[in-house]
Amino acid sequence: MIRVLDMLFALLGLVFGAPVLLLLAVLGLLDTGSPFFRQTRVGRHRQPFTLWKFRTMRPGTASVATHLADASAITPFGAFLRRTKLDELPQLWNVLCGDMSLVGPRPCLFNQEALIAARTAHGVFEVRPGITGLAQVNGIDMSTPELLAETDRKMLDELSLSAYFRYVLMTALGKGSGDRVK
Predict the structure, then answer these.
(1) Among candidate residues 63, 52, 3, the one with its CA nearest the CA of residue 28
(2) Residue 180 reports pLDDT greater than 60
(3) Torsions phi, psi of 127, nearest 5?
(4) What is the pLDDT of residues 122-135, one digit of tens each?
């Protein structure tokens, strides 16, 4: 049922959000010369997939976990995208393609070994990664791997349709701090 909802909401979001996506892409093109950012992330069953986002940092910025990135690399438009979480909109394509879910553990990078080990121990990689979830709405980021993996597991154990809608709604209403940078 959740996969059907994911596909339905992702398709509706991409179709009805197309004017906003186009506007953000044009503004991103003017801001950095390259509106989209793609990165290989760890997916379900630890398989790689390409994650899409709107670019929030200058091109050429080191590919590290957000909490390790330098805040000076974020453009003013990128800061707006992060604050409003609009940088996540292209991930609706990842959801539609089946790489991600709307709700699930945020996908990490392959070089985040401590987080991968903790998530493996908690069985978190058995599900699709998500755009939002319990950790995100509570401001828990990837700088605390064990806490994040435990929170992801708790979310998966308690995930219901009402929790699914609650996490999506909380994210849409701005709950959580988004990706923090130093």
Answers:
(1) 52
(2) no
(3) -120, 165
(4) 999 999 999 999 99
